[in-house]
Amino acid sequence: QTVVTQEPSFSVSPGGTVTLTCGLSSGSVSTSFYPSWYQQTPGQTPRTLIYTTNTRSSGVPDRFSGSILGDKAALTITGAQADDESDYYCVLYMGSGIWVFGGGTRLTVL
Amino acid sequence: QLQLQESGPGLVKPSETLSLTCTVSGGSISSSRYFWGWVRQPPGKGLEWIGCIFYSGTTYYNPSLKSRVTFSVDTSRNQFSLRLSSVTAADTAVYFCARQIRTSAWYFDYWGQGTLVTVSS
């Protein structure tokens, strides 16, 4: 079964830049997987940040950006703020109506 | 503004069937642009896609849960439902319903608030 991989945790200093990645246990992530990214604060509903690799959802600040870096999808936060401290999940569309979530990355801003 | 609201029992006994319904308001469930999906999150763990349903009744399931999951849709009530059979403690989770975009961009755009279902005797 396909596993979508993410860093379990990451830390960034306030004002700093961090790139979280989303890979596959076997193979490369490309735009054909329509990678999307979601932010979730514990106890809250996920919030859609990025879809189709690099399109920001309505209301999402432009310090969040998506891309493909090498063989992975990537979420970059530029100028991190304290309220960016959250869990971040990527999702890949595998085709044939099947979606797979990554395990999530817990981002700490300190 | 589209809203999704989960409803159903918060406590289910082991080996029984978990049943949840998602009511959609502010938009029609009968659109060719969307799937209507379920995602769950065990306490302290990550999100897991359970599957989704099209308004026509076509279903797609996570292969790891496929043998125990059944979805249905009621377009007259703008609702869709989840049934998960033979539950165990491992099925204890917050269950979210969500709208999934299915044409040219494949992602989740609206989420329900989630409902905690505990499996315990």
What does this protein structure show overall?
The complex is a heterodimer of chains A (110) and B (121). Chain A is an all-beta fold. In chain A, 0% of the residues lie in helices and 53% in strands. Chain A is built from no helices and eleven strands. In chain A, strands 2, 4, 5, 6, 9, 10 and 11 form a seven-stranded mixed beta sheet that branches. Chain A starts with a strand and ends with a strand. The mean pLDDT of chain A is 96. Chain B has 121 residues and is an all-beta fold. Chain B has strands spanning 3-7, 11-12, 18-25, 34-41, 48-53, 59-61, 69-74, 79-84, 93-101, 107-111, 115-119. The model of chain B has no long low-confidence stretch (mean pLDDT 97). The interface between A and B is medium-sized, with 25 and 26 residues.
Q: Can you describe this structure in just a few lines?
A:
The complex is a heterodimer of chains A (110) and B (121). With 110 residues, chain A is mostly beta strands.
Fraction of residues of chain B in helices? under 10%
Query: Which range does the strand content of chain A fall in?
Result: over 45%
Count of individual beta strands of chain B: 11
In round numbers, the mean pLDDT of chain B is: 97
Supply database-style keywords:
A: four-stranded antiparallel β-sheet, 11 strands, globular, B: 121 residues, mainly beta, four-stranded antiparallel β-sheet
